[in-house]
Specification:
- The structure is a single chain.
- This protein is α+β, with helices and mostly antiparallel strands.
- It has a ten-stranded antiparallel sheet, with helices on both faces.
- The chain has ten helices and ten strands.
- It has two domains: 108 residues, Homeodomain-like (Arc Repressor Mutant, subunit A, Orthogonal Bundle), CATH 1.10.10.60; 145 residues, Alpha-Beta Barrel (Multidrug-efflux Transporter 1 Regulator Bmrr, Chain A), CATH 3.20.80.
């Protein structure tokens, strides 16, 4: 039997982290997660804490509370509904735990961070159907216009590397991924790279922000070291194009969630956002960078 390496442990822990993110509504018992990682349940908790830097229980609770905070910020769902979806049986228990993490009540947090369009009834937003935009709807807010379309995409098989930390430091992860993928033939004129963005910088501490640098693959790949495989869910997404520096993504996200979503009749699906980078910062001025931002939507009934 071949010896277990640090790379093996890294791959197994990545499988667990992806599994947790995709099953936040499930019970996520210790034995279940240990089985996903092929670890002994007896030692799994210690391995998880040692590699991730927080206990399994704290990690799951934090992700559920951060998802709840994201919904408080970006949806019109009631606090009670969000509390139940986060696994709390009462408004009081949810409020108590939420305050311990965010130093504010759910209602107080919502009042501070929710986009303007949620707060002002009758905000000046309207839609103009325009076939020339290829399915986009024009969203006017004041003098500015935002083009949004709803697109259904197929599941995507990708190689990826996980970045944990401030989003403006993800460049090194991308360089490492391309250094690995290039010699193996996964980088070329037709290759598609995108980021899977799990966390909101207004909710998650900078050192805990998670992003996966991904390249779509169409053949069998053996994971190696920090490079792993995963399947990105397909489905309906709201899509808008951001033109300009990556540092201004928050403006586009705020408009998409705060202006388009409340008037769209759609609900956000519990899945991460995707960012498709249509050109590269190495040879493009910041003001000319083009990124298509995909927000996952629930299927319409």
């Amino acid at each position: 039997m071949k010896p277990v390496t640090k790379s093996d442990y890294h791959q197994r822990m990545l499988r667990v982290l992806i599994y947790i993110q995709q099953h936040l509504d499930d019970s996520l018992g210790l034995e279940e997660l240990a089985k996903v990682a092929h670890f002994s349940p007896y030692h799994f908790h210690r391995v998880f804490r040692g590699m991730i830097g927080e206990s399994l229980q704290k990690h799951v609770r934090r992700l559920r509370l951060e998802r709840a905070a994201h919904r408080l910020k970006n949806t019109g769902q009631s606090v009670t509904t969000i509390a139940l979806e986060a696994g709390y049986e009462s408004h009081e228990a949810f409020t108590r735990t939420f305050r311990s993490m965010f130093d504010d009540s759910p209602t107080g947090f919502r009042d501070k961070v929710q986009p303007l369009a949620f707060k002002q009834v009758g905000a000046s937003i309207h839609y103009v159907a325009n076939g020339a935009l290829g399915g986009f709807e024009s969203v006017s807010y004041g003098e500015n216009k935002m083009d949004v379309k709803v697109e259904t995409i197929d599941p995507m098989r990708v190689i990826f590397m996980r970045h944990t930390g401030p989003y403006d430091q993800v460049g090194d992860t991308w360089m490492s991924l391309y250094s690995w993928a290039g010699p193996r033939g996964f980088v070329g004129p037709t290759s598609i790279a995108f980021g899977v963005v799990y966390d909101d910088p207004d909710v998650t501490p900078p050192e805990r922000l998670r992003c996966d640098a991904c390249i779509i693959v169409d053949r069998v790949v053996e994971p190696e070291g920090a490079v792993a495989l995963q399947q990105i869910a397909g489905g309906a997404y709201a899509v808008t194009r951001h033109v300009g520096p990556y540092s201004e993504f928050s403006i586009t996200y705020a408009r998409l969630f705060g202006e388009w979503l409340p008037k769209s009749g759609r609900e956000v699906r519990s899945a991460p956002a995707l960012e498709f980078y249509r050109n590269a910062p190495m040879n493009t001025k910041p003001e000319d960078l083009i990124t298509d931002i995909y927000i996952p939507l629930e299927d319409q009934p």
